DNA sequence: TCCCACTTGGTTTTT
DNA sequence: CCAAGTGGGA
């Protein structure tokens, strides 16, 4: 009897095939972690591989921790010498040793998104970028995408030939990298990029790591991006013992640069690769699995596979709908309580999953009211709270004076009477002398332009220098407490009447306990290492698992986890799938969203509850969304309640009890748009915001009047959106048919949509189109034109029109609402 | 320089 | 809804 006897045939193959490249296609719940851990055990115990020659890479620290624990439990000794780590920590470890070869200091700092934004803002100001045209966010995400693809600023510039915007971005990218280098800082993406650069620039370094990591395993391979793949490829290039494990159906990080081709084309890169499919699911009941399979089947680009289970049918999937998100939260919370009463052993068996972090709020409130222990994964990161960032900025400044961002953050916190003007002057001096901001501070008395303000800078510098000298004999805890004491930071909070001052103080206390626990768990605690650990924690890493808390998290965070009871909340088109993906013209986006649904469903072992709220407040506006298309893709016999079937033209009394505000910019003039209230067109309103209000009821009424493209009304310009109040009234309106029910998009941003985007599933019957090729038509936005082509798509007609003014446009008939002339 | 009140713009998911 | 930005007054 060996530990391998419990594995099925495919799993055994995955464990025993240790030579050469291996692609393990592991469906949800098919025991891939088991295969990986047993494989490590096999390599060590049966194959005589030294533990330190094995590397296992995961995406989160939590996954790494779990893997380590499981390896420990099946192999007695040496397990701790297996390198189990995340991509980012791996790179940091390598870079801490060798990045000086790329001209950085080995004690570089790691910039988080906030720091990146600060840098970018500064650059935009200096380069006089019009941030109305090119937003900082856009710039940063362009740079991030470039890095994911290993495109350097120079490459970017070359690719930008002739493209004005791209060329501009290239310039910013270049400058951004220069600033980071000057500050001795790397952003998240750089960690990977620089490691690759290092390996390419220093073959001897690469080779030492190749010899070290003779057997490499990569978990969640479907989420790797091009840069990460290159890193792995380089490391594995000498011995080619590379085992990657993944599931193309669970690829949900395209927005982060994940390249699904990495998994789909693995066999092309490694022609000799062994491909093993794990298709038996050990996690979920038949019903859950059937539902998941039914949903994912709607994706076109995927490797074909058939997940099956020996588990019983299980209960049907619970589907519940509610009028409001409040009632939804109430139900979920009550249901959890009920399960506990009826014998569920701990709250930790339940997880509530949702699409966006914002959705946690209402659920949390209910859990608080009911007194049920819960934990929210993610949301506002502990380490991105203001007070924590301030404290860390002090530590960073003490650790690495070249980090200008950190220095500037704290130079006037608490207030020292050092204002923006002074900071600009110091920066100018620093630029002139080509030194860091902090070094400029040290020479403050040399800076002519700041005059008497120099006197205020000296104490700050002295303070930092003192901290540095104390670092010799201080523990980190002592240092932190000294910083708090000397700066008077907490004291200031205590004296302030700010209502969340108390929270902030508590957070600082929590930071201190984190420092203490860091010191306790590390042999040689040091400041740089602590800051680095802090920089690399993922939200999921931070959940303190006492096993008796309901977990609330996004679907993304839930990947890799499983629970006996899972709730998928907010299953509404516009929420999930998000309206971003619904309105996207890239069909791949909705597929990624569907994979997310697949991930969500397959988290459940036996009990899955799907909830829907007809009405939901999101971003300060009430939305009315139809049931998620993903729910509709689940065969009805798997659900325990039927989807509502609304008969068309079923008139009902509609009580309008709340008028909600919806504002949009009325430019460009004449633009058609969708809001949650239906389709509409902007009318002239001056250049100010106009207030647009309409109830669902009115929408129906007016579309019956046959206004093409909807109906328009502008309220008095002078009246601000918030102040308009209308009297509720009841109107008889037709209920929506399911088809009509679909094209609902959130308000706000959706105001900028031209009604043309492919939202429509509401296929018009061929006979209802009264125009054809050659006819003259009018479009609400583009004016008059001639129909040149009509093509029947799966859902709708695609109409090509050459407009007199706007040129050729291709649009869906249901949306274009063309009028024959 | 600081502080307040008010306006404005932005909103998915995350290592 | 919320965070960041603006502008006036102390």
How would you summarize this macromolecular structure in one to three sentences?
This protein has 32 helices and 28 strands.
What does this structure look like?
It is a single chain. The chain has 821 residues and is α/β, with parallel strands linked by helices. The protein has 32 helices and 28 strands. The strands form eight sheets. Strands 11, 12, 13, 14, 15, 16 and 17 form a seven-stranded mixed beta sheet that branches. Strands 3-2-6-7-1-8 form a six-stranded parallel beta sheet, sandwiched between helices. It is globular. The N and C termini lie far apart (82 Å). 41% of the residues are buried. The chain binds a DNA duplex (15 and 10 nucleotides) through helix 9, helix 26, helix 27 and helix 28.
What's the SSE blueprint?
Elements: H1 9-16, E1 22-26, H2 32-45, E2 54-58, H3 61-74, E3 83-86, H4 87-98, E4 109-111, H5 113-126, H6 136-148, H7 153-159, H8 164-182, E5 185-187, H9 188-201, H10 203-212, E6 215-218, H11 226-236, E7 242-246, H12 261-264, H13 266-269, E8 274-278, E9 280-281, H14 286-296, E10 308-309, E11 318-324, H15 325-341, E12 350-354, H16 360-370, E13 374-376, H17 386-399, H18 404-410, H19 420-433, H20 437-442, H21 454-470, H22 476-487, H23 489-495, H24 501-521, H25 527-535, E14 550-554, H26 555-558, E15 563-568, H27 579-583, H28 587-601, E16 604-618, E17 621-624, H29 629-632, E18 651-655, E19 662-664, E20 672-675, E21 678-681, E22 690-692, H30 696-704, E23 730-734, H31 738-741, E24 776-779, E25 783-792, E26 797-803, E27 807-812, H32 813-816, E28 819-820
Parallel strand pairs: 1-7, 1-8, 2-3, 2-6, 4-5, 6-7, 9-10, 11-16, 12-14, 12-15, 13-14, 15-16
Antiparallel strand pairs: 16-17, 18-23, 19-22, 20-21, 24-25, 24-28, 25-26, 26-27
The chain binds a DNA duplex (15 and 10 nucleotides) through residues 59-61, 86-88, 113, 135, 137, 188-189, 191-192, 223, 252-253, 255-256, 355-358, 378, 415, 417-421, 536-540, 554-557, 576, 578-581, 592-593, 596, 617-621, 689, 746, 748-749.
């Amino acid at each position: 009897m060996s530990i391998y006897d419990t594995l099925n045939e495919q799993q055994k193959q995955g464990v025993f095939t240790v030579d050469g490249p291996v692609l393990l296609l592991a469906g949800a719940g098919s025991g891939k972690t088991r295969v990986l851990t047993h494989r490590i055990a096999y390599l060590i115990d049966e194959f005589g591989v030294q533990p330190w020659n094995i590397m296992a890479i995961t995406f989160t620290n939590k996954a790494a921790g779990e893997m380590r624990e499981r390896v420990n439990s099946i192999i007695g000794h040496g397990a701790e010498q297996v390198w189990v780590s995340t991509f980012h920590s791996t790179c940091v470890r390598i870079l801490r040793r060798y990045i000086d070869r790329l001209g950085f200091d080995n004690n570089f700092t790691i910039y988080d998104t906030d720091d990146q934004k600060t840098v970018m803002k500064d650059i935009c100001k200096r380069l006089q970028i019009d941030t109305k045209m090119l937003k900082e966010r856009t710039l940063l995400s362009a740079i991030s995408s470039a890095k994911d693809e290993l495109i350097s600023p120079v490459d970017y510039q070359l690719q930008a030939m002739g493209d004005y915007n791209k060329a501009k971005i290239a310039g910013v990218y270049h400058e951004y990298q220069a600033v980071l280098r000057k500050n001795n800082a790397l952003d998240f993406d750089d960690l990977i990029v620089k490691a690759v650069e290092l390996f390419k620039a220093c073959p001897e370094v690469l080779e030492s790591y190749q010899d070290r990591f003779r057997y490499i395993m990569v978990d969640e391979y479907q989420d790797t991006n091009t840069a990460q793949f290159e890193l792995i490829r380089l490391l594995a290039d000498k011995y080619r013992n590379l085992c990657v494990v993944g599931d193309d159906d669970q690829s949900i990080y395209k927005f982060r640069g994940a390249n699904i081709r990495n998994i789909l084309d693995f066999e092309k890169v490694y022609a000799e690769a062994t491909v093993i499919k794990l298709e038996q699911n050990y996690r979920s009941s038949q019903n859950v699995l059937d539902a998941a399979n039914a949903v994912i089947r709607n994706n076109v680009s995927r490797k074909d596979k058939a997940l099956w289970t020996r588990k019983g049918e299980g209960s049907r999937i619970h589907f519940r709908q509610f009028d409001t998100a409040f009632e939804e939260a109430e139900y979920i919370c009550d249901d959890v309580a009920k399960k506990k009463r009826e014998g569920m052993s701990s709250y930790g068996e339940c997880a509530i999953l949702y699409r966006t972090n914002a959705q946690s709020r209402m659920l949390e409130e209910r859990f608080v009211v009911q007194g049920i222990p819960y934990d929210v994964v993610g949301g506002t990161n502990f380490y991105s709270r203001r007070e924590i960032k301030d404290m860390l900025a002090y530590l960073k400044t003490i650790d690495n004076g070249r980090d200008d961002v950190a220095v500037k953050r704290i130079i006037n916190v608490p207030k020292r009477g050092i204002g923006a003007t002074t900071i600009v002057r110091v920066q100018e001096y620093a630029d002139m002398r080509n030194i860091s901001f902090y070094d400029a501070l040290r020479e403050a008395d040399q800076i002519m332009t700041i005059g008497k303000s120099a006197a205020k800078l000296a104490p700050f510098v002295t303070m930092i220098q003192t901290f540095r000298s104390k670092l010799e004999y201080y523990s980190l805890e002592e240092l932190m407490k000294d910083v708090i004491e000397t700066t008077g930071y907490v004291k200031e909070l205590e004296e302030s009447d700010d209502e969340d001052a108390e929270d902030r103080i508590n957070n600082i206390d929590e930071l201190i306990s984190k420092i203490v626990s860091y010191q306790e768990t590390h042999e040689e605690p040091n400041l740089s290492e602590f800051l680095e650990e802090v920089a690399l924690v993922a939200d999921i890493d931070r959940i303190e698992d006492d096993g008796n808390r309901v977990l609330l998290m996004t679907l993304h965070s839930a990947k890799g986890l499983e629970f006996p009871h899972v709730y998928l909340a907010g299953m509404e088109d516009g929420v999930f799938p998000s309206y971003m993906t619904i309105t996207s013209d890239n069909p791949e986006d909705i597929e990624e969203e569907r994979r997310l649904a697949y991930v969500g469903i397959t988290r459940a072992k036996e009990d899955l509850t799907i909830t829907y709220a007809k009405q939901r407040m999101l971003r300060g506006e009430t939305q009315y969304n139809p049931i998620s298309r993903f729910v509709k893709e689940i065969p009805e016999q798997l659900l325990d309640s039927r989807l509502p079937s609304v008969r068309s033209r079923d008139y009902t009394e509609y009580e309008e009890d709340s008028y909600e505000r919806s504002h949009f910019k009325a430019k460009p003039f004449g633009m058609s748009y969708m809001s949650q209230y239906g389709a509409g067109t902007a009318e002239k309103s001056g250049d100010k915001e106009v207030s647009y209000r309409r109830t669902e009821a009115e929408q129906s009424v007016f579309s019956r009047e046959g206004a093409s493209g909807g109906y328009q009304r502008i309220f008095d310009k002078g009246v601000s959106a918030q102040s308009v109040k209308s009297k509720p009234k009841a109107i008889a309106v037709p209920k929506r048919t399911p088809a009509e029910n679909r094209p609902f998009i959130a308000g706000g941003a959706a105001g900028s949509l031209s009604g043309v985007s492919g939202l429509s599933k509401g296929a018009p019957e061929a006979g209802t189109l009264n125009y054809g090729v050659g006819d003259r038509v009018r479009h609400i936005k583009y004016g008059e034109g001639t129909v040149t082509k009509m093509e029947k798509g799966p859902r709708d007609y695609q109409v090509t029109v050459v407009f007199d003014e706007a040129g050729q446009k291709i649009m869906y008939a249901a949306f274009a609402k063309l009028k024959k002339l």
